[in-house]
Amino acid sequence: MRICMDADYEGMSRRAAAVMADQVRENPRSVLGLATGSSPVGMYAELSRLCRAGQITFRDVTTVNLDEYYGLTPDHEMSYRYFMEKNFFSLIDIPRENTHLPNGASLSPALECSRYDRLIESLGGIDLQLLGIGHDGHIGFNEPSDRFVPDTNYVKLTEETIRANARFFASEADVPRYALTMGIRAIMQAKKILMVVNGEGKADILCRALFGPITPAVPASILQLHPDVTLCADAAALSVIADKYPAAIEK
Fold first, then answer.
1. Would 111 be classed as within a structural domain?
2. Largest CA distance in the chain
3. Which strands form 67-69's sheet, in the order they lie side by side?
4. Would you call 73 helix, strand, or coil by DSSP?
5. Which domain holds residue 118?
6. What distance in Å separates the CA atoms of residue 189 and residue 85, rounded to the nearest whole number?
7. Per the domain annotation, does 20 fall within a domain?
8. What confidence tens digit (pLDDT) does each residue in 113-161 have?
9. N or C: which end of the chain has fewer CB within 10 A?
10. Catalytic machinery residues
11. What is the mean pLDDT of residues 79-92?
12. What is the 3-state secondary structure (H, E, C) of 19-52?
């Protein structure tokens, strides 16, 4: 695992964008697993800039997002499809038909989960999977549990996740209580994983995930078993690791 530290969010975002850009340049037909949330926004902005400057193209790239709120239509302004269109897809040259998210408006969550797993399998799996980490250690919407759930699944969000995501909604009551999320198997079968984390509030859980026991109580801890993980984080997010395991950090 490579743990890369930058002084601030902007530096972290540029470094993460460089990792993803290198992947696309090496394999223009890459399958990219993408994530939402505040952490990757800066990375998406930098990739969009590189695309506009003609330094990278996404014409032949295919994307599969980690998750989607259940009950929101793709055009809902709080849906993850809407987020991706606003922050990335509409700013680059990727064909819309090459971009995939779970369908949060599906009438059957079980059938939609199965469809999404079949889609990922039909693409040959994921070449590079982007991840963040929740304050409780979740990746995608794989919440703390007594087991790792392998397949795309319909999940009830924890109260902590609902509170954390409330900042994006008019009120906490508006946050959906359920989501569809890619399972642990597809994430761990990705050839490479890129993780972006920023802010002091993630420092403790990041250290537990990367250096603590591997347990479904901290879903991100399973990444310790993956052979090719790159973490791009700012100094605040790495403050605990820098204190306890300074030799692990690449600056």
1. yes
2. 50
3. 67-69, 178-181, 153-156
4. coil
5. 2-193+210-231
6. 26
7. yes
8. 999 999 999 999 999 999 999 999 999 999 999 999 999 999 998 888 8
9. C
10. 67, 136, 138, 143
11. 97
12. HHHHHHHHCCCCEEEECCCCCCHHHHHHHHHHHH
